Amino acid sequence: MMVRIKVKNRRGLAFPVAVWVIDEFMDALTDLAWVGEVILRCIPLPKDEKSNKALRWVKAVPFSGLVAGVHGLIKGLSGYNGLDLVDVETENIKVSLSLK
Hints:
The chain is of the alpha+beta class and 100 residues long.
């Protein structure tokens, strides 16, 4: 994967990231998300209605499942070469991610 960042009137930054590094990072992130879910289950809901709604939403979403899904998506896309994943440009900053 190639990451490129360009800020207007400055030199750009481009660096490669090996797919196996992303794979290992996503494995570790999935485990951390699972631990966070277990810890959140032990926290009682607050009496404040606004905080209660926010914490109920956080407890209801399986973040480890979301991270695992993104991990599977990245693993599936890693088989394609020359694929541009992200290409975002604002007034001053341009960021692009591509599989090379």
